[in-house]
Design goal:
single chain, alpha/beta, 4-stranded parallel beta sheet, 13 strands, binds iron/sulfur cluster
């Protein structure tokens, strides 16, 4: 059989490692499964290709559709971008991913999940609806599959308690270099987790937390200071979700702007926030306000963020972000 793959979110774009390029894991597993069955697998060619099955995968519901015509006897749509109920059948999900379909993904790195699900119910997130309660999934050695560098996409690994401890211990003993690229929940970092997190070798030398509310600032600070007390000297990367409240977002991001300066002055492990404009999972066409886009531009360009305060940030010629403060913060 001839199998065609369509990656709606990235179209196997060539992006630099470090600039957040991740393979579509489901397509990698589909490719592995069909190759094992002796089928021919390729990126689907619009118009001219002829396929028995085409798999179209879309992770984000806001990704632009690929409207080109593909010739196929059967088209299978998969991924949260099409339906949050979408799941791989177990005989495909159990396959080791074939990363070779993405020639730009660096060799020697494995991608995967140790757990699925999350016990929380953040209103902007589809994970609890899609995956349900947290539970063990693949063991870290199975994800590694012989590689030493691992990008782990767990949504809330620390919520897995003893299983999380066991997996972190293995990561330390087996000398893996890992990244939990969906961030850790700072509220769950107790003394035992802090000791382990300080010992783990981190890909890109950074630990990621989420800081989506004012309340989480204190929780992140507590976790950071506990982990630092066990000798960690890398960086912290904080995902900060923006919401409709300019004042709250400004205060939260500006707090981390000041902390970034302090860390550099005091030569302590640096902290970089990363701002994500809010996208409504149930309404991907909802427009994103300009202030959220500009705030994300200010925060996410680290060279700019380190030297420029929000008021002085000029995302466009003759426009400074102090405009938003004057508009939304009344004296
Ligand atoms: S903690 Fe993370 S994964 Fe869990 S519901 Fe909130 S945003 Fe989603």
């Amino acid at each position: 059989m001839k199998i065609g793959l369509v990656d709606i979110d990235s179209h196997a774009k060539v992006k630099k490692w470090g600039a957040t390029i991740y393979p579509n894991l489901a397509l990698c597993k589909i490719a592995a499964y069909h190759k094992k069955c002796g089928d021919e697998v390729e990126w689907a060619m619009p118009l001219f290709g002829e396929y028995d099955i085409i798999y179209r995968s879309k992770i984000f519901n806001f990704s632009k559709e690929d409207d080109r015509h593909y010739n196929a006897k059967l088209v299978i749509y998969g991924g949260t971008g099409y339906s949050i109920a979408s799941k791989l059948p177990p005989y495909i999900d159990d396959c080791q991913p074939d990363y070779s379909i993405y020639p730009t993904v660096p060799q020697g790195v494995s991608f995967g999940f140790l757990t699925r699900g999350c016990p929380n119910k953040c209103n902007w997130c589809v994970v609890p609806r899609k995956e349900g309660a947290i539970r063990p999934y693949w063991d870290i050695e199975r994800v590694a599959n012989g590689n030493k560098k691992l990008v782990l996409m767990d949504n809330n690994i620390l919520a897995a308690g003893d299983y999380a401890h066991e997996q972190l211990e293995k990561a330390i003993l087996l000398n893996y270099r890992i990244d939990f690229n969906q961030a850790l929940d700072a509220r769950l970092v107790d003394d035992d987790f802090a000791k382990q997190l300080a010992k783990v070798k981190w890909l890109n030398n950074r630990i990621r937390f989420g800081c989506d509310t004012q309340g989480q600032i204190g929780e992140c600070e507590k976790a950071i200071s506990l982990i630092n007390s066990y000798g960690y000297r890398g960086e912290y990367f904080l995902y900060t979700m923006l919401n409709d409240d300019f004042v709250e977002c400004y205060n939260r991001l500006h707090y981390w702007w000041e902390r970034n300066h302090q860390c550099r002055e005091n030569h302590t492990p640096n902290i970089y926030p990363y701002a994500q404009p809010y996208r409504d999972p149930d309404n991907p066409k909802r427009p994103i306000p300009d202030w959220q886009l500009d705030m994300a531009r200010w925060v996410n360009k680290h060279q700019v963020f380190q030297v420029t305060d929000f008021d002085d940030f000029e995302p466009r010629k003759s426009f400074k972000c102090i405009y938003y403060k004057n508009k939304y913060i009344t004296a």
